[in-house]
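Researcher: I'd like a structural prediction for the single chain below. Treat it as a standalone chain; there are no partners to consider.
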Amino acid sequence: MNNHKLIKSLFGVTTLLIALGYLLSIWYADPILAEMQFKRVGSKTIFFATLLSVVAGIFNAILWFKINHHIVNTINFSTSYWAWSVGRIYRYIPGKVAGYYIRNKLQKSPIKLGVAASINELLLTLLPIIFIVIIYLVTSKTIMWLVPLLLLLLFSLYFIKPILMAFPKVNTALSSHGLLFFSPREATDKLWFILPAMSLQGISFYLIINAGLSEYSISLYQAVLALYISGIIGQLALVSPGGLGVREAAIVILLTSFGLSPDLAISAALISRVTLILSELCNVALAYILKQGQKT
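Model: Treating it as a single chain, here is the predicted structure.
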């Protein structure tokens, strides 16, 4: 292992341990209260939150298919949906890298296509997330110096293809591998799948907190913000399988900054993970049924 990989591994493991330690410290500060909060969520809330997450997953699967189909038009949706849903489960076993690998293996995609599709998926998802973060910073009047930088990043991602056209050699090299294929119009078209998925996941998280744990303690906007910022942080934690621990720690930090108590925040984070895993298993089942139906 070279020094670069060693530093990355040490940083990842350290981040994971700090996140898990933080969560455990909150839980053991008042385990009875945290457990009571966890048990307050009824089966109806879990059911509807999971159902919303399942539908959100279908929108995300369609996005994944659209990205891949844009590069290689021979890919069909049932295969793409199956590969995407199984890849989501594999994130928890050997880790996120294996999850990305298995979904391209099941899709029978070349490695270059898999890398290109994963990069595009992340960049497209970042567009609305950066936008809602900018709105939050402006309305709350916090960390205002970050707003111009985020606006520049948003502009660069949205107009990335026209910008690359000014650098023919770079554009040709990237386009030949499909790495940065979307124009502003293409990015906007794909937002029709990203925005419903984000909204449904946000409503699911909002239900867990407001209907299951505490009445009117957080707005829908704050729920979406907390869920997706923590999701990006979890994705960056490559050492943590499925972002386990790191994502939950980020949710707790964000929810407590919105005024929720630590025990309520940690319960919301854990229940959100449970509904996410349940929804991912449901998506695997639906994808399998669709795949078998196309064979017959």
